[in-house]
Design goal:
383 residues, mainly alpha, Growth Hormone, Chain: A, 2 domains, 17 helices, 0% strand
């Protein structure tokens, strides 16, 4: 039939990623205002919902189990359906409890989409262009962030929050259903899938865990520092997020190219080296423009995860790839609930400087482990 897609390709993977990230970023932009203005949510209510939202990331190892029975293309498509349905359920929510349930449902879709879509992309990419294709994909994800944020800003001028969630969620879910039907299987019949953790992937799991610690410190406390200590209003914060999307459209491509040219070790160790100074800057710099610049640089360096996935692909068997990525996401989210609580307590007891110095120490440990990766020429000799 003509609506069928003949094969999984980089454009189809990119299109799927754009739809996923449009839906997720639309939710991220609208959530706080929706929860506060419609349900009069307290900071505790919002914090609790945000904490349980990370549970699907902690349970992302379930993707590896699903991949025993379903192809990656089917899991990714169903995940997009779940994101769209989660947005619709959020719009229908009569209470904060139901809104929390809808948020978790949406989050399952997002956290199960990411490892499966990455697995598809890495599986069809040549070893000398894995950074390049990942960089392009992440650039399109930044474009999707702009589309999602812009859609919410435009639609809420003429619709209320519920109608906006219905419309965006309906479009995302409809496209997801189409992809479920249209995308072909992308797995060889001879592939033998099992749920297992192999020792040779230990370094990848350690780096995923450490980068998860760094990510949750940043996402929880960086903007909070700017709002709490420097009194930034929502307009400036939103402008910073939009600027971040625009800049990373270009820097993600550059980081992908750098990973291919200089190697994964150079990118991962180099980003960790810079992050030591960035986190130290959060602790001691008080000049607001400098802190905003550090925030932007921190966001740019999130793109260094391209190199970590490229490293995994070079050392992994094809049948292990999806399971490893899903276990890596679980490792990345182990501290998702712990870091905000511990970091906030440390902030309250000893000051915000201690929280960010702890982040700098974690990043330094990440640097030491990154230096254990093979150099680029060593990979080439192995190949």
């Amino acid at each position: 039939m003509t609506f069928r897609i003949r094969q999984i390709s980089v454009p189809t993977i990119t299109f799927s990623a754009v739809i996923c990230w449009v839906g997720f970023n639309a939710w991220r932009v609208i959530f706080n205002n929706f929860a506060i203005e419609v349900f009069d949510a307290s900071p505790t209510d919002v914090g609790l919902i945000q904490a349980v939202r990370e549970i699907p990331g902690l349970l992302a190892f379930g993707v590896g189990a699903l991949a025993i029975y379903l192809t990656e293309s089917r899991i990714a498509s169903l995940s997009i359906v779940a994101i769209g349905l989660g947005l619709i359920l959020s719009g229908m929510a009569p209470s904060l409890f139901v809104l929390g349930f809808a948020t978790v449902f949406m989050s399952f879709g997002f956290h199960y989409f990411e490892p499966t879509n990455s697995s598809q992309l890495l599986a069809i990419s040549s070893s000398d262009e894995m950074g390049k294709v990942q960089g392009r994909l992440r650039s399109w994800q930044s474009v999707a962030g702009l589309i999602g944020a812009g859609s919410v800003m435009a639609l809420t001028l003429v619709m209320d929050y519920r109608e906006t969630l219905y419309l965006i969620g309906g479009i995302v879910m409809a496209i997801g259903i189409y992809l479920v039907v249209a995308l072909p299987a992308n797995r060889g019949k001879s592939e033998n899938r099992k749920m297992r953790i192999k020792r040779k992937y230990t370094l990848y799991y350690i780096l995923a865990f450490l980068r998860g610690c760094r990510r949750h410190i940043f996402t929880t406390f960086a903007i909070f520092l700017l709002v709490k200590n420097h009194h930034l209003d929502i307009t400036i914060v939103s402008g910073m997020m939009m600027a971040n999307f625009v800049v990373t459209i270009f820097t993600n491509r550059w980081l992908g190219h750098l990973s291919d040219k200089c190697g994964e070790r150079f990118v991962l160790a180099g980003s960790s080296f810079l992050l030591v100074f960035i986190f130290t800057g959060y602790a001691y710099v008080t000049y607001l423009p400098a802190l905003v610049l550090l925030y932007l640089l921190d966001n740019i360096l999130f793109g260094s995860s391209i190199a970590l996935k490229s490293y995994l692909r070079k050392i992994s068997n094809r049948e292990d790839l999806t399971g490893c990525l899903s276990f890596g996401m679980t490792a990345n989210h182990i501290t998702a609930v712990i870091i905000p609580v511990v970091g906030g307590t440390v902030w309250a007891m000893f000051g915000y400087q201690t929280t960010f110095i702890a982040g700098a120490i974690i990043v330094f440990v990440d640097l030491l482990f990154s230096l254990r990766l093979p150099k680029l020429n060593q990979f080439q000799k192995q190949g």
